[in-house]
Design a protein that fits this description.
Length: 386
């Protein structure tokens, strides 16, 4: 057994204090996103936005250099638990950022909750993630599906429509957005006469479009995104419906998709927490920087990825890059106000953005913001115990 005299201990302590802090290893970030399939575009944009913010910080987050481990989740929920476990157990990453698809992200949140690994969700809106599955180590910088369904429901109500039909993919995102839309639309005195769905990620819309033509509702609400949204908007137009039955969407319908949709998207009205045509100094600076860096125009997914990096930066800065100080990090992230290209937003007690939902209209190659559908919309986060 060693005995240290009080004097020797004091000398040792003093010399330790004089030592420089040990060099920190780069922060290991797991990026679990879809790089193939109908959400490949959104996945790529999330990563580009995330990397842009880091580049603006000189390649660091919270003063710490970063490295990446990337996984293509293929938007396949059946592979999500294995993919997530690899990042947690094999790669032992410090934090995981992902994903786009609600079913994939729900599986990720389950593993994050069990393992305690820090997870930041940069898109997927599954209500449960900031509801019954909420946890101190799970944050979202995008939206809940309810939020992005509710807002277009408000817009449709304000326009005075009374008979609506809905159409979407039959999975959590589609079903929860339709629920949000229906809630707001019915509050305004409207009625949804029929809900149409097809399996994700199918794009065989013809039979459903024929049904819409037969039912003749006053308005159609749709949620599709990525490659599926491009095809739906073109098919809706080609079926002759655009000219006769107005289409209202969650803004994913026309975000990051306009080049592919061409004239079929012109004039479409949607609601979302971002608009590429938002004319604020913050958004303009972001868009210019993004275009120079990536030779591409950013969309909502890029903004959400950028803000995931911003939120992590706040947490890491509070603990000088020491992710082991989890409580301090989480506290700073909970209190954060993020100066996003979408406008400033705060974090709800359940860790979901509290944010304005804009009304947008497609003009040329932009989703021009024409107003605010709902200010500071907060998801109630029902079922969350933290
Ligand atoms: C989702 O699955 O949560 C989702 C995917 C694309 C856009 C919006 C939501």
């Amino acid at each position: 057994m060693h005995h240290t005299t009080p004097k020797a201990a004091a000398v040792l302590a003093a010399s330790l204090c004089a030592l420089p802090a040990p060099a920190q290893e780069p922060l290991k970030i797991g990026l679990m996103l879809p790089y193939t399939g109908t959400f490949a575009g959104p996945g790529d944009m999330v990563e580009k936005g995330f990397r842009l913010f880091i580049e603006e910080q000189g390649g660091k987050l919270g003063g710490r250099a970063v490295t990446f481990v990337k996984v293509d989740d293929e938007s396949d929920p059946s592979k999500a638990t294995d993919n997530m476990n690899k990042l947690v157990k094999r790669d032992n990453v410090d934090v995981i950022v992902g994903s786009v698809h609600s079913g994939v992200a729900t599986a990720m949140a389950r593993v994050a909750k069990e393992s305690g690994k820090l997870l930041v969700v940069p898109n997927a809106g599954a209500d449960a993630i900031t509801g019954p599955m909420c946890a101190p180590n799970i944050f979202r910088t995008s939206f809940s599906n309810w939020q992005t369904g509710y807002a277009p429901g408000v817009v449709a109500g304000k326009k005075g429509y009374k008979r609506a039909m809905t159409i979407t993919w039959n999975y959590a995102a589609g079903n929860e957005m339709v629920k949000g839309f229906t809630e707001a639309f019915e509050k305004s005195g409207g009625q949804v006469i029929k809900h149409l769905t097809l399996p994700f990620p199918n794009v065989e819309f013809q039979a459903l479009l024929t049904e819409i033509a037969a039912q003749k509702p006053e308005v159609v609400y749709a949620f599709f995104a990525g490659g599926g949204a491009v095809k739906f908007v073109k098919d809706y137009d080609a079926a002759g419906l655009k000219a006769t039955i107005p289409l209202i969407g969650s803004g994913f319908l026309t975000d990051g998709t306009l080049q592919g949709q061409g004239s079929s998207a012109q004039g479409l009205v949607t609601a979302l927490h971002y608009g590429d045509g938002l004319e604020t100094p913050r958004n303009t600076a972001f868009r210019n920087k993004f275009a120079v860096t990536w030779k591409a125009n950013p969309d909502v997914y890029a903004v959400q990825g950028y803000d995931a990096a911003q939120l992590l930066n706040v947490g890491l800065a509070a603990v000088k890059g020491d992710v082991g100080k989890r409580d301090g990090m989480v506290e700073a992230m909970r209190k954060a106000t993020i100066d996003s290209p979408r406008g400033k937003f705060t974090i709800s007690p359940q860790h979901n953005p509290v944010q304005d939902l804009y009304i947008r209209e497609v003009k040329g190659e932009y989703n021009v913001v024409t107003g605010v559908a709902v200010k500071a919309l907060a998801d109630a986060g029902r079922g969350c115990r933290m």
